[in-house]
Write a structure and sequence with these properties.
The protein has 153 residues and is α+β, with helices and mostly antiparallel strands. 40% of the residues lie in helices and 18% in strands. A four-stranded antiparallel β-sheet has the order 2-3-1-4, with helices on both faces. Helix 1 runs antiparallel to helix 2. The radius of gyration is 15 Å and the shape is globular. It starts with 12 loop residues before the first strand and ends in a 5-residue tail after the last helix.
Length: 153
């Protein structure tokens, strides 16, 4: 069966979630998390996406971004997923899928929803009981968005 195209026009703001296969961990260490963030920044520039918020959880990631070309999120997520999986498999001598199917995406339709979604993303580690305060979690955009505003890159 053919999957439906996620047809988002330029200027769309999207909340995307991708889970590890069978809810397994996506990252094994901080080096892998750091590489994911660097790749996310590089691909954001390549595909003209403004990143507003992110969090790298144990078994999934949340990304909030605005695309400046129609369906840029598709190529952004494809490259991010494939390159991350390839690098992790090379490091660990593993094979197979790393991600649980395609990413999930929701379009953000108002500034109020954008702020609610950003808060939801950045508070995820607190709700999961990993930290007491969002600033204590190293792998989210919380500390950056408190300093520089809404667009990270």
């Amino acid at each position: 069966m053919v999957r439906p195209l996620r047809n988002y026009p330029a200027g769309s703001c999207l909340h995307m979630v991708q889970r590890g296969d069978n809810r397994r961990p996506c990252f094994h260490n901080d080096q892998e998390r750091q590489r994911y963030l660097e790749l996310m920044e590089c691909l954001g520039k390549k595909y003209r996406c403004d990143l507003h918020a992110y969090v790298l959880m144990t078994n999934h990631v949340h990304i909030l971004l605005t695309v400046h070309a129609q369906n840029a999120q598709s190529m952004f997520m494809k490259d991010l997923s494939q390159q991350t999986a390839h690098w992790v498999h090379l490091r660990h001598g593993s094979t197979g899928t790393m991600w649980d199917g395609r990413y999930h995406s929701s379009q953000i339709d108002s500034d109020a929803y954008l702020l609610t979604c950003q808060r939801y993303i950045e508070l995820n580690p607190v709700r999961a009981g990993m930290v007491d305060l969002p600033a204590a979690y190293k792998w989210s955009s919380y500390r950056q968005t408190q300093r520089v505003g809404r667009v990270l890159f």
